[in-house]
Amino acid sequence: MAATEEKIKEYMKMNQTIILATIDSDGVPDIRTLGGYGLSDYVIYFSTLKTSNKVKQLEEKKMWQFLYSTKISLYPNSLM
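The structure assignment produced for this chain is given below.
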């Protein structure tokens, strides 16, 4: 079943963190959690230092992926 555009945007907005994966200059994956980010339609905004590895890797390889992560509950909803 295909998700509607509205459902996709709702899912993107409800997530608390996103995980950014890039590739370093040696071709090794570099994965990190971004706790603060903003959304506008399907555009993701986040801030970082200009000298960070994220910026260097995004400029060099232009290869990346995001994974959205929702809050994980350690207990079933019925116990809360």
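Interim note for the steering committee: The chain has a mean pLDDT of 80. DSSP finds two helices and five strands in the chain.
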